Amino acid sequence: MKRAACLLMISLAFMSGCTERDRMYRESRVLMDTFCTITVAGSSEEKARKAINSGFAEIEKLDGLLNYFSEDSEITAVNRAAGIRPVRVSRETLDIVKKAVHISEITGGAFDPTIAPVVSLWKFSKDVSAPSVPPEDAVADALRYVDYRKIKINTAASEIYLAEKGMALDLGGIAKGYAADRAVEAVKAEGIKAALVAVAGDIRGFGLNPSGQGWRLGIQDPRPAAVSERPWEDVFATLELRDKAISTSGDYQRFFIKDGRRYFHILDPGTGFPADTDLISVTVIAPEGYVTDSLATAVFVLGVEKGMKLLESMGIDGILVCAGKKILLTENLRGKVNILNTAYQAVNYSP
Ligand code: ADP
Ligand code: MG
């Protein structure tokens, strides 16, 4: 996706039953190699536009700092200096890397931002029309450089050091959710009372929409019956989001099928291969987007049992979809998810 191509669209929408004063203003742009949409509820268009611009400016700034593919991002500087020297970084980069390490720790390494050397072998982010499975010895070799414990952080000096040459950071599993968090803060700082920030499938909302309800969102059908031009509109369930973030990781977003097997972009740091679990989609709901983004990836890697256990132990909500279209909900979510597609069946999980 071309990052320069910006889609500047302002649409004014009236919500049913709301007053003249409550309007929604929405704009989408391509940032972080994906579609970002900011929806703001407000009484003045000028104020709403200003807030939306602040939100996008924040996402753009983070994109500049964190982009793995950009020549001049801070992450690229850290990666180039792996095994050589620590690199001084901005407050934001230091903060997200710390958060990524924390998530790695609590997931026992199922989430690992040093997965980059393995990710680059798979080429999911590039040309999925020319799929190839990397040779096992190449994967094993790249895996030697995957270890979040070798990320050395010096907070006082604001420095990050990757302790071994060949190591590299890829924040693709946490940056979008983090950007949604920061954009929400930027929008709030403009005096806005309700907004929804979506960085692809990593979405954070706050406040109530103009109809006085939480933001109603759909979860994409991981196995739709028919091929659609707008797959994200094909949802199997909906729920209401109130002052929370939501992220979905699935095996259907970036994948290829070879010899009857599905290969996708969520990799198991233990094997270097796509996570081999019973799951096809994981949705996580929590107060912060960096948590939902990274935990959705981690739970996908951990599988049903360990994944459910982790979420329940943290008091975080999750919707796990297994291969047979069976849905498992964490306890707190039961009765709060509206399942639209009857091919999907909610089953009770008992550990
Ligand atoms: P998406 O980017 O489609 O929202 P995820 O949030 O699940 O999907 O993140 C997947 C991305 O994160 C991959 O494209 C890769 O860059 C990186 N990644 C893959 N596996 C892992 C992992 N086990 N831990 C951390 N990052 C990962
Ligand atoms: Mg994600």
Outline the structure in words:
- This protein has 351 residues and is an alpha+beta fold.
- The model is unreliable at 1-20 (pLDDT under 50).
- The chain has two domains: 7-64 and 174-346, T-fold, CATH 3.10.520; 68-170, Orthogonal Bundle (T-fold).
- α1 (45-66) packs antiparallel against α6 (175-188), α3 (91-106) runs parallel beside α7 and α6 crosses α7 (289-314).
- 28% of the residues lie in helices and 26% in strands.
- The protein contains seven helices and 18 strands.
- Strands 1-2-3-7-8-11-14-15-16-18 form a ten-stranded mixed β-sheet. The protein has a three-stranded antiparallel β-sheet with strand order 4-6-5, with helices on one face. Strands 9-10-17 form a three-stranded antiparallel β-sheet, with no helix packed on it.
- The chain is globular, with a radius of gyration of 20 Å.
- The structure holds adenosine-5'-diphosphate and magnesium ion (MG).
- Adenosine-5'-diphosphate binds at residues 111-113, 115, 119, 124, 170, 172-173, 200-201, 249, 253, 265-267, 269, 293, 296-297, 301.
